[in-house]
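Dear colleague,

Thank you for sharing your sequence with our group. We've completed the structure prediction you requested, and as agreed, I am returning the results in plain text so they can be pasted directly into your records. Please verify that the sequence below matches your submission; if there's any discrepancy, let me know and we will rerun it promptly.
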Amino acid sequence: MNILTSGRFWVVKCLALAFVCGLIFSYAPSVIVHRNVELPPAYTLKANHPFADTSQLKEPAHEGERLHGAKLTPRITGSILLWISNRASFHPYLPASLFGFIFLASGIIVAYRITSDRVSACLMGLLFAGLYTSSACFSINWMPKPFDGVAIGLLGLSAACRNRPWFLLLSCFAACWTDERAIQGMLLLAVLFHAWPNEEKDLRYRPLFLIGGAVVMYIATRILVAMTLGWHSPDMNLMNPPLKLVVSFAQLAAWTSFEGGWLIISSALLLMASAKEYLRLGVLSCAIVLAIVTSLIVIDTSRVGAFSFPLILAALAHLQHAKLPPSQIRHILGFSALITLLAPNYEIIVGVAVKWLPSSIVHLFLS
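Please find the predicted structure tokens below.
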């Protein structure tokens, strides 16, 4: 660990380790697998016309995919990046893969700024590698949806730009225009910024105003753009699943929102309860419930849950605020990273072939 965390370029070395862990335990990044990806009709339209209205498409035949495509109309940031990739003949998942790097780097950078401990930062990077691995946002998983990874990467960038007001404002604004669910992630970013240890009140609240300003800017510009381009209102039918289905997915939603990060969050909640910090306890608890319920509303645990990662960093901030010894924080982060990397990827570890991964590569790794 000392080799990784020493020197000027320790962040690059930790990021490389996190990415290698992602390669070992995850779906192969689609930009590496040389195959033609057939995007759904709505994404194909966006790849050619970023500002197109997808709500009127009558295909594909599958109702769920058709309704999902209808929601792509205002996701402009991802559409523009997809259009650039298409024009340059790059893989459609190249933007998601690049922002996946930003997501991994944000875990390392933010954890270091919270704890001032390079080992803890490296371990958080490994935990984020586990979240990257089990998420459907950064590589093809069943049905291609290349915008989600961009939105999550922008949220990670926003977390890392906490002390750079203009970058924070612009990255939050771009995240909103990539996926509306980023607004939920920004609420969780607000919880993280408010929990930041050893911070004066005025510096603690300034990022919250910037996040609020980004949301207001998004709402205003979206109304203006929608009126100018004549966009139709998106179909919201997918946000009303049957109660029985919601209950059956509750346990999965709770797990995928944080995975091994639950160990960090539980430790923070216990410390706050023992210290009788009921306000902090209530804010973090409500944010956890919001993160889980949001993924249940649309039954999209593999993607919506991925927007919940700021709460893991917020829990780390609470551990630091409680002045937990660095060695204990390292142990908690280490176990959390191990769980996050291994538990959701058991089938890959024991040798089950992964969808989209060529069988020749599978045999090479297993031989």
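Summary note from our side: The chain has a mean pLDDT of 81.

Kind regards,
the structure core
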